[in-house]
Amino acid sequence: MIETQLALSGKSHEVLSKKMTETRLTPYIDSSAALGVFIQNKNGTKYFTHGGVDEGFVSQYVGSVEEGSGVVVMTNTYNTALFNEIINSVATTYHWKNFYTPVIKKEISLPVSLLQTYVGKYKWRTDTLPVILKNDGLYIDVGDGGEWKMYFTDNTHWFVLENKADLNFIIDASKTVTGFTIDKETATKLE
Questions:
Q1: pLDDT value at residue 83
Q2: Residue 45: its pLDDT value, please?
Q3: 57-74 tens-digit pLDDT
Q4: What's the rounded mean pLDDT across residues 142-148?
């Protein structure tokens, strides 16, 4: 990561030349997928990142394209919320430009009778996502043993700590829950 930043600024060519580094950090497949790294645009400031998973550990690195800041995190958990918290804490402590700009949301409590109407299985793309009611609220099962707690900001809008998607339950004219949206995509209720 450091050599990438040095090469990009023209201060080193130990691993790659400046031109090859610029090529490596240019997205090709979409706005984020470059050559061996992913590019994140954080409010106009670019960062390059890549992660890895192996038996017993998960890793992630993030480096700034222009400012020389970065971090490498390795943990023995698959908890993405922990990963994000560590990276965001480093970015905040070291004043990374535009990296962590939290959106403050206020959670409200909903009656159990309303929460029960959201329980069921939802079809999203090729996945089935069960919504489960537990003693402390609703959870969405995202597979591989991962359950994300759902926090509500009104009767239909909700969020999870693990993802920044805009989430909203869909209720038809007869007040039946028919699905939910993940950003602009719909997950259809199966039962």
A1: 83
A2: 95
A3: 889 999 999 999 999 999
A4: 85
Match 């099962």 to its residue by tokens.
141
Q: Where are the domains of the chain?
A: 2-93, 112-189
> Can you read off the two tokens belonging to residue 191?
């039962």
CA-nearest of 12, 161, 59 to 49 is 59
Q: Give one DSSP letter per residue of 38-95, joined into a string.
A: EEEEETTEEEEEEEEEETTEEEEEEEESSS--EEEEEESS--HHHHHHHHHHHHHHTT
Nearest residue to 65 via CA among 78, 86, 47, 53: 47
* pLDDT at residue 152 is higher than 90: yes
Q: Which residues contact 98 (CB under 8 A, 6 or more apart)?
A: 42, 43, 44, 45
pLDDT exceeds 80 at position 174: yes
- Return the closest-CA partner of residue 40 out of 120, 97, 115: 97
Q: Does the domain spanning 112-189 belong to CATH 1.10.150.910?
A: no
Q: Which residue shows structure tokens 């997928």? A: 33
